[in-house]
Amino acid sequence: MLAFAARRLIVSVGLVWAVASLVFLVIHLIPGDPAELLLSQGGIAPDPAAVEELRDRLGLNLPLWTQYLDYMGGLLRGDFGLALQDEHPIVDEIALRLPRTLELVGAAGLIALVFGVPLGVAAALRAGGMLDRLLTAGAGLALSVPVFVLGTLTVLVLAQHLRLVPAGGYVPFARDPGRHILLLLMPAGTIAVGLGAVVFRVMRASVLEVLERDHVRAAQARGVSPAGIIRRHVLRNALTPVVTVVALHLGSLLGGTVLVEFVFNWPGLSGYLVRSVESRDYPEVMGIVLVISALFVLLNFLVDLLYAVIDPRVRHG
User: Fold this and answer.
1) Are residues 139 and 177 in the same domain?
2) Core-most of 116, 215, 240, 248, by most CB within 10 Å?
3) Of the residues 51, 69, 90, the one at which a domain ends
4) Model confidence at 200, in pLDDT bands (50, 70, 90)?
5) Residue 41 has pLDDT above 60, yes or no
6) What start and end residues bound the annotated signal peptide (predicted)?
7) What are the strands, taking DSSP E only, across 59-198?
8) Are 44 and 299 spatial neighbours (Cβ–Cβ below 8 Å)?
């Protein structure tokens, strides 16, 4: 197990380094001079001397390979540099916003699993029946509704018309735990609808496939109860593809919660990324993209370890 984890860890570190290098090169190939953009006011061309002075101060006149080495050295120290707009440490802003996005995505994943897994098992055990048809149709509908439409409808119905919950916003958990959870549930639930539908469909298909295996049929022939078969023989094997799907979707959601955070005014990392792109603040964009990519790699590393726990055969693959 330790050897398997070490191999996966080496691969993960290599992927993070490759992503950091790629992000650096892509950002520096984008047309436009950041110093000139920062000094431009109302479309008036800035003073060339001021542009040159700012380029020197930001290190933009250094050779590309020197900038790359400085960038990678900063990353090893946990330093993402300073923002171009106000020269505040980027790592501080990321450290403030990242937990909010992780909390939002984590809550959405938990809700999706709590509802998607048991409903998928129930539908598979009654394949072709009325319950299976209703649940499958509901999952198809959930997947067809865009997240921003669902979020807007949630705000209009629950917040504006029924006034059951606030329309959006953010309150730190330490200040008001109850209101924090209340404000979290709507955006997390909005994300969880589509993710839960995916979990349901994968779980249903996986359970149906496992039920056809020989060892399950043998257990049925021995008179093992249906509950015992599901608990001992089906769930362990059927959860493997569900883990993959959830991990991949959670990784994509880390950078794809822009619309949800905007609709519900949730101050997470995605909104910070949009603001940085609009202002052409390259160091901020590089830091945010790298953090999101590193988290995606970390999720896949943890999934590999979970695979090895669920199915020991994976360790020798």
Assistant:
1) yes
2) 116
3) 90
4) very high
5) no
6) none
7) none
8) no
